[in-house]
Amino acid sequence: MGRFVAACRSALYFVFLVVTVVPWATAAVLYSIFVRGERLYWVCAGWLSLSIWGARVICGVQARVQGRENLPDSPVVLLSKHQSAWETLAFPSLMPKPLCYVFKRELLWIPFFGWAMARMDLIHIDRSKRAEAWSKVAEQGRRFMAQGNWVIMFPEGTRTPRGSQGKYKNGGTRLAVETGRPVLPVAVTSARCWPRKSFVLRPGIVDISIGRPIESAGRDADSLMREVEAWIEAEMRRLDPEAYRQ
User: Fold this and answer.
1) What does the pLDDT average to over 104-113?
2) Which numeric CATH code is attached to 2-244?
């Protein structure tokens, strides 16, 4: 019975997302004719906040944040655990500065949602062209951080199942080292409520833990990423110990 109720609530939630994103994205695209940059970002982030509100009200997904005092005022490269779509929707409303996501360009093909993304200061890449993709990340990441924005990357590259660990790639720390910006590690237990490859959201609490910024000056990308990985994975085991008992 519980699974059936969760499935019904999730179906209602996805209807809610579709019904709200169409007019919101249309308005954002029209607004982008006149305004770009940070003002457009916060307009689009308003829908993301609405989507997280819907997940809480409709599906019972709550958020609990630790480490807000670690959020800096200056630009950083934010490196986060990635377990579900929840954190991609939630982070803009949790972070104080505009976030420049690094994402695969195929997301731009999603009607309305992708069209609005195309008008924002984000970094979309072609994963099949690695050298070209990195050049774009480095060039645009440097430019956007110079404007005060933060760059966000998921070092595992894709969503990982609850209780598992993917291979951490050093693209984010490489960008930090080349730009002289610190990295900000984040652990998030979203798979507890929104499992990977599932459209059913389960009621519960998503824990987000924000670590202290780690300076990149004088570091190499590999050792810096190992430090980020060690902190995130240790924090994941502290936040969600039952997922790592095997």
Assistant:
1) 73
2) 3.40.1130
